[in-house]
Amino acid sequence: MSLCHVLKQVAPEGITRRLVAATFEIEIEGKRVEWQEREALRFVDEKSGLEAQVEAASDRPYRATSLKISLENRSARPSPPITAIRPLVLKLSEATEARIRTAGGGLAYGIYPSPAYEERTWLARSEAGEPVVIESGPDGRSSNKDLPFLMAGVADAGLIVALEWSGLWRQTAFYGPMLRIVAEIPVGGIVLEPGARLDLPATHVVFFEGDLDCGGNALRRYIYDRITPPLEGRKPLPPVSYDHWFGVGGDVDVGFMKAQVGRCAEIGVEYFVLDAGWYAGCGPEGDFSLGLGNWTRVDLRKFPEGLEPLAEYVRSKGMKFGLWFEVERAHRGSDLVREHPQWFLDVGGEDLHLDLSRREVQDFVIDLVGGWIERLDLGWSRWDYNIGPKAFWERHDPTGKLMFRYVEGLYRVLDTLIQQHPSWLVECCASGGRRIDLGTLRRACTVWFSDHTDDSHICRYMQTGANRFLPGNYPNSAVPTAKGAGDHGLSDFDFISRMCGAFSVDGDVASWSAGLTKRAGRSIEVYKSFRHLLVQNFYPLTPHPKRPDEWEVVEFASREGSEAAVLAFRAYGGPESLTIPLKGLREGLTYSVTDPLDEEPPCRATGEALLRDGVELSLRPHDALIRLVQKV
Length: 632
Hints:
Blueprint: H1 3-8, H2 13-16, E1 19-28, E2 31-32, E3 36-39, E4 42-45, E5 50-59, E6 64-73, E7 82-92, E8 98-103, E9 119-124, E10 132-135, E11 149-154, E12 157-164, E13 170-175, E14 179-185, E15 197-199, E16 202-209, H3 212-227, E17 240-243, H4 245-248, H5 254-267, E18 271-274, H6 308-316, E19 320-325, E20 329-331, H7 335-339, E21 344-345, E22 351-354, H8 359-376, E23 380-383, H9 390-396, H10 401-420, E24 425-428, H11 438-441, E25 446-448, H12 456-466, E26 475-481, H13 492-496, E27 502-507, H14 514-530, E28 537-540, E29 552-557, E30 563-570, E31 577-580, E32 590-594, E33 603-606, H15 607-612, E34 615-618, E35 623-631
Parallel strand pairs: 17-18, 17-27, 18-19, 19-23, 23-24, 24-25, 25-26, 26-27
Antiparallel strand pairs: 1-2, 1-7, 3-4, 4-5, 5-6, 6-15, 6-16, 7-14, 8-9, 8-11, 10-13, 11-12, 12-16, 13-14, 20-22, 21-22, 28-29, 29-30, 30-35, 31-34, 32-33, 32-35
């Protein structure tokens, strides 16, 4: 059975008749291995002594297939250097044109529209043009340049190639006129000793029928239903959380934090998270990096009785307590570096990189974090990663083998902790959203997806862009408040602009006025009423803006079409009103359309009218609105 046959078993007819080749490629000393198939999906190369075993898992309900390839040296001598690894190569023919869609990674840009999570779509028509290339980026974190999802459509169908991998990667789409898609892991000459095995990252192929927006929903469904981990035995909804960092940084103590607890309980926050700076050794200016590695010592200047009283106070107010970690990095002068210098990768400088390729280091992190989870009854952790691993990996192993072992170790740590603590929610973070891939998404219920929180337009733009590939439980964004800032001009617009994903408030929310507190509580109540739709179907009713004077209108609809939430945003210009046809509803049903933040009675419309004629929306500049559409 060939890989092409495996994929055709779940692909729609529009792809099946065009898919002419599906394979993997390994190069040894710059030359491609010519594999001989010995049995179904088992290949050998007599010259090098390598054997490749392909494990293919088809998921018919989701029209998806995952492919996992393991390389093993079956000879009695070391293998020649492996210089290229391509876990998947696809070729599609008979297409007069191809549509390619990708998205930018989770960087922090202070410009609107933002390159972060920007939808990028190409129409390939030329006989031979420049390829579309997306990649992990310069420092080794998996989405430090692009998200690792490549979507391609031909005629009335398409596919998405996604890597379950938190290291270096590259995907390329060539068109000329055959469409060729190549997924690659950059390596520098890996040698396998006799009997040694190298497990390549899983590659997922999700097929769809229809346009690229249909492809986005196919991927969102697959990620939410098949990749997202359960929380207390159920798939998670987008959470409502508080985190102190954006707004006040490390300038906190137990009194300040307890003041925030009361306000958060008042407005309906579910998770209260203590971010960086809770451990001993941080700098006088709030430099949290100086204390990294002092994980067993709490900063008693800020928390003289430890963290237990704060955690207990949070729980007494009906919320779950969360704690920030960045265990993969440590300061050179920290306790952990002094006690176990052999556990670290060092390239000079103040920060060292913990070596999770080592089993004893993995066990230490499991015991360390697990101990804090049990001690404080943690319901949430922000798992941060503010360091690029590429320089560390390459200094200690330029071949790339260390990268494979490291990623495997990271997954073992998180898998073990999640299995041992099923009520513990992981929020993936890497200086924002710089490590988002199917590997981290399989081990996180949400993602701190950008360190930019200031501009409401940018935050919304990033959330709507991310929703083209990710279900809405993942892109978490916050409304920040500086210390003592009070209301600081905050309005309903600022809250709605973070409602296309997980919702968070940050900073000194205790300084809010009674009026703003009431409005925030009402906004969160409305958000909770429709957040279940954020993990279902997503429809961009207008294009992702290219200019500040363009509106953005998006719709989240239930899979069966019984209800929807429409969110509209106007930035710096454009018309005062738009009439927008909706999607995803059902003809033959009658719906009510309401403004949940207004006291006006709802209006009624048929599904046919909403799909054909749409709804009329009016907005001032720098404003937003919500319309809830529900089956009568």
